[in-house]
Amino acid sequence: MATSAVARETVFALRRQIAKIEGTLPERLEAPAGATPVDADVTPQNPTADVIPQGLTIVRRGLAVAPPDAFLRTGAEGLDTALSGGLPKAALSEIHGAATRDAGAVAGFALSLVSLILKQGPRLPVLWIGTAEIFREAGFPYARGLHAVFGIEPEQLLFSEAPRLLDALWIAEEAARMTALAAVILEIRGSPQRLDLTATRRLHARAQNAGRPVFLLRQAGEAEPTAAPVRLILSAAPSASRETIAGPLAGSIGRPAFTVSIGKSRTALPGQFTLEWNPDEHSFEERRGEERRAANSVPVVPASRRGKGPAAASGAVLAFPAVGSPAAGDQPSPSERAAHRRPRRAG
Questions:
Q1: 264: CB partners within 8 A, 6+ apart
Q2: Angle 105-110-114 (CA atoms, 0-180°, nearest 5)?
Q3: Which three-class secondary structure state does DSSP give residue 246?
Q4: 225: how many CB neighbours lie within 10 A of its CB?
Q5: What are phi and psi of 287, to 5 degrees?
Q6: Is 332 helix (H, G, I), strand (E, B) or coil?
Q7: Confidence check: pLDDT of 274 > 90
């Protein structure tokens, strides 16, 4: 019996060691009321172990211990509770947009997180890295809106446009190790093969060593495996009406709103939240169920049911021929398309 117990204990210790190497142990565990060993592999051969004071949180048990302020709280209680305290500050976090049309929402949410970071610490610059393709398709943040909406001075936001993804990854890795930056943002379009587990593990390790966050913005790509502990899926949410002294102003557009879904987290279950960004307080507020139903309750265009009273025929359409498709020579050249030069208004 004693031999069998020792054998089971040995197998159990080996399994835990393998799980620790693979990173499949619980990432965040609250410390119990008493003292808890840091290294859970306590065996008769290792009777002594360091202890964790009360109030600390274990991040990837056996590897690191972090205080509660190591997490960036968004201010939305529902999302922060689901993430067990918020987004990790010294880590790689993935913010995913399913389509290119969500680029504004993804950028606005990332800038909101940067605003929260700058409120808590020294106002260091932020480096935004991207390829020429993503900046051509999604544009740049609107400089005059940075201060008005997010409280970020335009000179604090630095941009690095790389011709290739390989160059962008190299710049991100070098910038992630710098403590002179408040945060690093890497924006990628699509699902490139080079953005694999190895590349994201390097970014995550650099962020942990420097104690700075690295935000990976994925635009119009598949949700593929990465080393980021948290993946948030972002899209724009309907804005509620603007609040006045007399009540909501009908037909008006209120604060920017985001639909945030937890796509991946080692400590949280999947969930969806609607957050509103307060540009005056520079903080998030969670929109509850009743407020969500009240937002834009009147449809802009009624659904057609082929009933009585059909809509009147539309008038003449300008700039398009009435019949047929335009000829190839009538299309504007890429240099003439204003959409490619239009700034991205994240707010």
A1: 94, 223, 228, 230, 231
A2: 145
A3: coil
A4: 10
A5: -90, 125
A6: coil
A7: yes
Amino acid, single-letter form, for residue 66: A
- Does residue 215 or residue 242 have the better pLDDT? 215
Q: From its phi and psi, is residue 130 left (phi > 0), alpha (psi between -120 and 50) or beta? A: beta
Give the tens place of pLDDT for each residue, 164-187: 999 999 999 999 999 999 999 999
Range 56-77 average pLDDT = 64
Backbone angles phi, psi at 4, to 5 degrees: -65, -40
Whole-number pLDDT of residue 56:
45
The helix (H) or strand (E) run that includes residue 96 is strand 92-97
Average pLDDT over residues 323-337: 50
> Helix (H, G, I), strand (E, B), or coil: what is residue 52?
strand
Q: How far apart are CA 75 and CA 337, in angstroms?
A: 40
d(CA 74, CA 113): 7
CB 274 within 8 A of CB 258: yes
Quote the pTM value.
Answer: 0.67
Nearest to 226 by CA among 23, 28, 57: 23
Average pLDDT in the 305-320 region? 49
Q: Span 20-26, mean pLDDT?
A: 52
How far apart are the C-alpha atoms of 314 and 58, rounded to whole Å? Answer: 63
Report how far residue 275's alpha carbon sits from residue 193's, in angstroms, rounded to the nearest whole number: 32
DSSP assignment of 259-271, as one string?
Answer: EEEEEEESSS---
